[in-house]
Structure formats: C-alpha cells, structure tokens
Write a structure and sequence with these properties.
By secondary structure, the chain is an alpha+beta fold. Helix content is 33%, strand content 30%.
Length: 326
Amino acid sequence: MQVIEQINTENCEKIREIYEDFRNKALSDYQYSSPPIEFEQFKLNIENNFLKGLVLFENANPLGILIFYKEKHQTIEVNVIHANQEENECKIRYALLEALVKHLQDKNDWKVISYAMLGKQEAFVNEITNLNFKLVGQSIVKFDFKSPVAFRVFKNAEIPESPDYKLAIWNEKHKEQVIELINLAFKNTKNANFDSRLLTKEGSEEVLNMILTNQYGSFLPSQSRLLLLNGNVEGFCLTTMVTQEKINIPLIAIRKNERNKGMGKFLLKSVLAGFVRLITENKILLSEINATTDTDNYPAVKMYRRLGFKEESFYPHAFLKNNLTE
C-alpha cells in the first residue's frame, strides 16, 4: 500500500537512507554544483519550517521524496524530486508532485510553483504537462578556463569602441539603480513566469540582496562590473564563487536603450579578463565560469558564444501559476 505524507519531525528519520541516496547522486544525476546539506541540517530545517517536503511510502518503505520551500514572495520552489526505484522514477515523481498541487490548490498564499528539472528529472517532462505545468527552456553556458579554443575565441573577440562608457567594480552607491535595472530588464522575460520577484522593484531588491549576502555563492564585488554612462548605471554583470574552482554569473543586464551596441559583450569580456588576470598571476585557480539563459534568447546565447562560452547542458524549468492569485 502506498501513502504520501508530509515530512515532519516524526517521520523524518525514516527518510534518512533515501535522503543520503539523493545526496550521493546530487552532483552526477541532478547537476548540483555542490553537495546538498547534511541530513542532520536537513532535519533541523524541517523542524524549523525552513524546508518542507513530501515522502511516498510503500509498506513503510520510502520510495521517493519531494523537497520544497516557500519564498517570501510566495513562490513554492521545488528543490528536487528524488526516487530510489529507477524503473518507476517518473511515476513516483508524478505522484509526489500531484500530491503537492492538490495540497496547494485551494490556498491563496502562493503565486507560482517553480521547478528546475535538472539532470535526470528532465525525463519527467512529458508527464508534468498533465498537471498543467508550463515549461521554459534553459541553457547552461560555460567558459572553460582550461580550453585553448575558448581562450582563443576570447582573445580574438572584437569589442566596439565605447569612449563614453566607463566600467567600474561593484559599489553600493549604485545599488538603487541596479535594483531598478533588474526590474526593468527582467519583468517581461520568461524568467518572471517562475520567479515573480522580478515583476516588482521590491522583489528585484530581494534578488539582489540574496546575491550580495552570498545566498548564491560568495559574492565577488571586485570581479563584478557596472557599465556607467555619465555616472548612471546602464548595465551590470555580477559574479559569485560557487566552489573554489567555479564562478557563476547570477545576473547580467543592459538597459533597453543601450542594447544592440555590443555593451553586453563589452561587460562580459571585462569580467572574463579580470579572472584571466588572476589566474595568470596565480592568485586563483579556476576551471570554469558559467551562466544560465533562456534557450530561445538568441542575442544572449550569441554573446556568450562570441566570447568562448559553450552550451554545456539544457533543462526545462517548469512552473504552475495559482489561478486564485492571478
């Protein structure tokens, strides 16, 4: 007999083994950049209501877990749906996600369910549409610092002359302008479907604060860039250190009236050059810098390619909006 329960302090210990199985496979099967939290920390987060979850039991044996949390901006963020039966993975994932949707369907304290279907979870893409989820294609692009081809493309990339524009490292005095630009640049993009923070200035401020306070890796102010015109922020590229060898670009944007002038390429090449300099001076050891963009955002994909980035992988980002709050 199968039954789905909410993960709580009473049954949490019963999922230790399947959680450890997830942890062991997180990097290989789910494209995690670093290992998930230890089980004891997971238990503590469940106890303190920082994380929530569902577990599918069959005769008291856990077959699958769904881990999620609720953001301040009323997004339900599904971290992972993990099954320990390979032959029934999609069925287990479907049952758990369906249970979550049913649990939430009459509530009005959430706006959207967001689910990045990384790694093996992509196999679930056909079934998830039966639950009325919509999909946005995402591409992970990577610059390989160990690739001679990537370096050659980077060095040969032509950058337009821009004497009126100035590059500067991150400075708190420009924070309000960056918040405004995040909102303006992303509120009408597909990303806003699954990240409602981007729809408002208040939400955009939350996104920026999470980057600045190391929620997405260690923020690197001296390796982040602002594009200034007459002292005003017209673009930015923010960077974080995810591991000792991997850098991520969580956000890059150019003001709409400054696009199609090569300014994004100008910004990105400056960021890359800064890391190349650090590597050359033996101040840092890096293997890659990566970013995520919509698969159909061709201008962005083209910009990355022209500086030596390659599309490393693709994944669907699923989202389900709450009809009660739209």
